[in-house]
Amino acid sequence: MIYRTLGSTGEKVSAIGVGGWHLGLKKVDEQLASRIVRSALDRGINFLDNSWDYNDGASEKRVGKALRDGYRDRAFVMTKIDGRSKKEASKQLDESLRRFGFDYIDLVQHHEIIRFDDPHRIFHPEGANAALVEAREAGKLRYIGFTGHKDPQIHLHMLDVAKENGFTFDTVQMPLNVMDAHYRSFEKRVLPELVKLQVGVLGMKSMANGILLKSKTVTPIECLHYAMNLPTSVVITGIETLEILDQAFEAVESFHPLSNDEREALLAKTRAAAAHGYFEPFKTSSIFDSTAENPDWLGEEPPEIRELMPA
Hints:
This protein is an alpha/beta fold. The protein is built from 14 helices and ten strands. The chain is globular.
């Protein structure tokens, strides 16, 4: 396994991480999910992704069970919360802790920063970040980050609002793949800022749940190699079978830093397919926006904002 340093935290994390959403799917039974998690850890992967909203909590519960019997200390566990208010974020974090059965979570991230108002709500005095900072002081979590998949400008806005509030994130998660480089690119716009700030970079949607592969321009191994070649701490990939787990390890074992010619060849193959964002629907549609479908997860707007509205 290749291990990398997670930003300025000093933590050593595996270059590949196991995505949590797939582990809670109905077609993946609990026994298989446990085998995937434990096999991944036994073979050197230590980064486990998850979220409060994945599969109505089934993903967190399954990972919690898989990490019993001495496995917890071998894993760096991340989850995400959707709440924008302090009250809702605290509630969701406590639910995640109960589902996992842990005393603490290594990394908790603000999930789906896909609207320009999200940063302001999160950094309100009664916003979600206040809840996570208090939880960190109480020992419920160790590090704080955020995620988003919609637009690099929103990520940059989140970083600006954090800076205005004197806060530096430990991690940022975003789409990094062979097509992102051609369209509304997080790689070109956000990644350099994170490197400069020494923030841990979590790459996601390296294959976009297989959607990129439907373009018939690139293979799974090429997708993983491209994302791993960027200054990522971890590339998170969905794993729902032991065969796909083997594929992830094959990508690690065969990985080498791409030459400029190799990188340009991959970009040339995907340029036409990527041009309009068709194979990145998380940027161009709402079908990946779970908080848009469930706005109650975000919690109430700050009271002084609600008071501005006409009766």
